[in-house]
Design goal:
Helix content is 36%, strand content 21%. By secondary structure, it is α/β, with parallel strands linked by helices.
């Protein structure tokens, strides 16, 4: 599994109900089912990936986050996962709202557009950066809403979501030593993971401590 998938799996309690949005080939679903005893299923927009998942016996359906989450009932899952898909959806704010409507927790991973290498590439070349994480040219990328860690945290605060856990990591698998500073994580973290809860589940002192 990718690094973010391994870290996501560690955030999920065994035996819980999980919906993986943008499940790809079903790697995370398979891991959660076999090793953590979860009732895990997925939704994927790429029909080829859906076919691959179903061929391996995984419960994945064809659909997209922007339109199909509204069909799920309230509280249907314990965790709703959005892995490296936030920047590719049309309505990120609405997708997050739906995730925390149908799930008690939302887990979101995304590449950080605030990383120092991207800033320097834009500054000195004047062109959209290309890295191992942002690896498609601007005219062929599915990423329509790139965001930074600070952007995402600001959205969570606006919506009143409880940030229960967050971390910034690099693509090689190292957890950032600056994990307690959002500003440094925003500068040096290549990708981010957030575990979110509903506003009513958030302790006031915890919510305040996340606003740094």
């Amino acid at each position: 599994m990718r690094l973010d998938q391994r870290l996501i799996a560690e955030m999920i309690e065994p035996g819980t109900r999980v919906l993986d949005i943008g499940s790809g080939d079903g790697t995370l679903i398979d891991h959660l089912f076999r090793l953590r005893g979860c009732d895990a299923r997925g939704i994927e927009i790429d029909m080829r990936e859906v076919t691959r998942s179903v061929a391996h016996g995984l419960p994945v359906v064809h659909g997209d986050a922007d339109h199909d989450l509204a069909h799920y009932p309230d509280g249907a899952f314990d965790y709703v996962v959005l892995q490296r898909t936030l920047q590719a959806v049309e309505r990120p704010r609405e997708v997050l709202r739906q995730m925390l409507r149908i799930g008690r927790h939302a887990i979101v991973s995304f590449p950080n557009f605030g990383h120092w290498q991207l800033r320097l590439m834009l500054l000195f070349s004047g062109r959209m950066p290309m890295t191992t994480v942002w690896h498609t040219p601007w005219y062929d990328t599915p990423n329509i809403h790139p965001c930074t860690i600070r952007d995402f945290l600001a959205l969570c605060q606006e919506e009143g979501y409880c940030v229960q856990k967050w971390m910034a990591v690099d693509e090689d698998g190292e957890r950032a030593p600056w994990r307690r500073s959002i500003r440094l994580a925003n500068l040096f973290g290549e990708q981010a993971l957030f575990l979110l809860g509903r506003k009513e589940d958030c302790e006031p002192e915890k919510a305040l401590s996340r606003k740094r």
